[in-house]
Amino acid sequence: MKNFDSAVGQPPPPHERLDGRNHEWVHLHNADIISMPDKWEFPWYAAWDLAFHCLPLVLVDPEFAKGQLLLLTREWYMHPNGQLPAYEWAFSDVNPPVHAWATWRVYKIDKKRNKGKGDIDFLSRVFHKLLLNFTWWVNIKDEHGHNLFQGGFLGLDNIGVFDRSAALPTGGHIEQADGTSWMAMYCLNLMHIALELSIYNPIYQDLAIKFFEHFLYIAAAMKNLGNIGINLWNEDDKFFYDVLHCPIANHSKCDVMQLKVRSMVGLTPLFAVETLEPHLLEQVPKFKKRLDWFLENRPDLASLISRWTEPGVGERRLLSLLRGHRMKHLLKRMLDESEFLSDYGVRALSRYHLEHPFVLHFNGNTFSVSYQPAESDSGLFGGNSNWRGPIWFPMNFLIIESLQKFHHYYGDDFKIECPTGSGNFMTINDVANELSRRLTRIFLQNKDGNRPVFGYSEKIQKDPHFRNYLLFHEYFHGDTGRGAGASHQTGWTGLVAKLLQPRDVRQP
Fold this sequence. Notes:
The chain is an alpha+beta fold. It has helices at about 45-60, 60-70, 100-115, 120-140, 175-200, 205-225, 280-285, 285-295, 300, 325-335, 350-355, 395-410, 430-440, 460, 495-500; strands at about 175, 235, 240, 240-245, 255-260, 275, 315-320, 340, 345, 360, 365-370, 415, 425, 475, 485.
């Protein structure tokens, strides 16, 4: 990106250029080979898209995948304040912080391919730069220092009641269930990376402790917002919601309310889960000693992160935002075919809102969210993206991976009804496999010889020159599996390649 100053010998640029789009990113100098979201409709990079791209990429070219993750943390991409550029139209927007997750997954896959030898240089280089990014998140997006995160856009375009990139029409701010959950996940990702690095250099145990403690404080904040008794969890609905803080006229306080939209936002707490192996804890004695201190001296915090004190299968320990009670209730709703569960994966918005739209009236204006399984009826973000009902591969992939981690701890004794109301009970791992089957079904021929991805196009379904050439769409119809949005989104929809691997290969 060129400097906003005038070129030598040229007249000065107009003053408004100094406040134009991306004006804070004058350090940017991008002239590299980058994995794009789409070669035709979205030929520009986006930080979280690229992170997901690296999972299918590592299966065919590990060095390129590692290089892509390193690239966005380099000083000619990352802002001096630690922010990663979101996407080219608005670098200062905020994508979910999945860079650490992708780095850890790419490292582990590459390590397994190299017979247990991991690329520690790659892991440590990305980790050091992500320390800056984590600090940026904490300083900028935690508005009141309560470990609750506003986040903003977070990549889920029109999923909320309001445009999450803009100032609220109600004034005030929103404590986002997904922003806070993403940060809890980020803590656990960085903690696990620090523990891996600690095996080679014990000083990293201090950083592992730091991220473990921050995870605890986020868990506490989700239960009681800023110690004022407001919860992101709704016990009546058994679901997580965003919380809106509206300023009260002529008053210093805010009116607080949950925005009761049943969306993927409320499922993101599932993502904040990790298991720790007993042999790993033996290798990091300083870290283990600090954990034991918390168990003894802060049982109020330790009790929030699931069953840390109770070893599971293989004597593993579980770190999760969800204790068994809440996890069961979230999964019960997620696996309900009248709500989130489709024949083709998990919808981004519950089908409940087809007949029960969420409606908010404020100062004579009406804001609503309704179920739209394919194309959007909203003009937000150009109107060509929709998170109010369709199936999105990256979120489904994270759900599947999270379920595998829960199973890694609970084992075969923990079962849940799938689908909800069917009378059919499965282990959590079997549920993960069932979701994988439903997602891959999008691309496979059904009993009529048709592929759901091609929808009702007779030409593409039957013509031998088309029918076997698949398109990796941006997202998919929440009821039929038809491809929608950009038609060459081979990056994150390419995650299906990981789902098609043998089960023992794709375990977390």
